[in-house]
Amino acid sequence: MSRPNRMPAAALRLLPAMLALGGALALAGCGVKGPLEPPPGTALGTPGPDGKMPKDTGPVKPDKPFILDGLL
To answer: Which portions of the sequence form the region Disordered (predicted)?
Structure first.
């Protein structure tokens, strides 16, 4: 007589939770595409530590909310 193997049944019960967690972690890495924002209270017209003026990045794009922003 062989002993029944209960490991596959336990793994099958955990599989949906593991897939949901993996999907949530993958989506958490998504962000806003574009250059980094300067720290609050800094002026863009002042030269940087290397003495060069920062270049203009163009017009500011309006923030469009995304359905999954609440997860971030």
So the answer is: 31-72
Nearest to 69 by CA among 25, 33, 28, 41: 28
Instruction: State the distance between the two ends of the chain, measured CA to CA, in whole angstroms.
Output: 53
Q: DSSP per residue over 26-41, as a string?
A: HHHT----SPPPPPTT
| Cβ–Cβ under 8 Å, residues 27 and 68 | yes
Helix boundaries (H) for 2-58: 7-28
Q: If you average pLDDT over residues 21-41, what whole number do you get?
A: 77
CB atoms within 10 A of CB 65: 7
pTM for the whole thing? 0.35
